[in-house]
Fold this sequence. Notes:
Number of helices: 14
CATH superfamily of the largest domain: Type I PLP-dependent aspartate aminotransferase-like (Major domain)
Number of strands: 19
Structural class: alpha/beta
Helix content: 25-40%
Number of domains: 2
CATH class of the largest domain: Alpha Beta
Bound molecules: pyridoxal-5'-phosphate
Strand content: 15-25%
Distance between the termini: 47 Å
Largest sheet: 7 strands, mixed
CATH topology of the largest domain: Aspartate Aminotransferase, domain 2
Amino acid sequence: xxxxxxxxxxxxxILHQQVNGKPLVxxxxxxxxxxxxxxxDALVRYYERDNSNVHRGLHALSMRATDGYEGARARVAKFxxxxxxxxxxxxxxxxxxxxxxxxxxGHAHLKPGDVxxxxxxxxxxxxxxxxxxxxxxxxxxxxxxxxxxxxxxxxDLAALDTLLTPQxxxxxxxxxxxxxxxxxxxxxxxxxxxxxxxxxxxDAAQSIGHMPFDVQQIGCxxxxxxxxxxxxxxxxxxxxxxxxxxxxxxxxxxxxxxVVSVTYQDAxxxxxxxxxxxxxxxxxxxxxxxxxxDYLDAVGREAIAAHDDQLARYAMDKLSALPGIRIxxxxxxxxxSGLVSFAFEHVHAHDVVTFANEDGIALRGGHHCNQPLMxxxxxxxxxxxxxxxxxxxxxIDRLAKSxxxxxxxFAG
Length: 412
Ligand code: PLP
């Protein structure tokens, strides 16, 4: 099934505007995606009709809000093929989801001498929580190396064999690198980690809305993702956890809504997912996230992945023709996600982004929350064009033209 981006664009009101007198070209989807009308409508409908607090009310609005919220949980469970909706915990986003595991699981399981394994190309959100958890427990943090001067070789799978010892208690890795575009073999990583008894955590922020994702097929223990990168609202995300693991964990945040019984001195916890959702949850955004799942499944994530791949190949082809460009990540023709990071020797990424903005194009420039990776690549920053289901080859042509203009300006 292929996808018609022109038809899809009609669903996204924000795309139909001019920036600096030019039609907007939105190529910053790695940072956040735009929202289809159906998601915006779901938010408005909730606040106009159903807004109420969940779980604790017996009136009509509270029951409707509760049904909507729990319905969204079941919808997300189906989206990732979780065995049970109770394995879906709503959070604020990927960052909070990873922190919940690092604090709850880390506190309960990590001891001095243990190893937490991750890779050299994680977003800070999948690095700093493990630094903190390892430091608190006296455990060691180790890294699967990245191969190639431009990171084009992907993770060093031979090194992974050596690194995955029985001391490794947890292996946390990204599915898709937000800077390189590398797609990690996540099922393979989980299989190898399981063989040494390590728990796995997948950062699926850049993949979940872009490609099929089946937690049972992948065989992972925890998965973190954000609604706002998959056509859903900001402020809502998910932590998927295998039920057997969640049940043994204490909450990392406590308060109302998570307890069976409370005395002046102590409290006992409800089972997951409530145990991990203290306080009033983000009902409206959870419901709209369910609508985003409907929207993406109606388009088809296989079709989205094929479209991303086609755009990435087209962009690699166009951009590699530019003089002095250094493209980071997998080489042209190799599989990569729908994003391309690049650098010019004599033009700073912030100038690239500023010039592109003059041409109505939204790009991102900086370290992309990947400072250690940037240092490893010998770069201060890159510019990044990241694509999604509504982007077109014509937009990439406009990007290439804009970059030619920048290069001409700086060539003087
Ligand atoms: N992980 C990756 C790979 C990302 O790209 C991002 C955001 O850019 C995050 C984690 C953090 O996501 P959030 O800011 O939605 O928590």
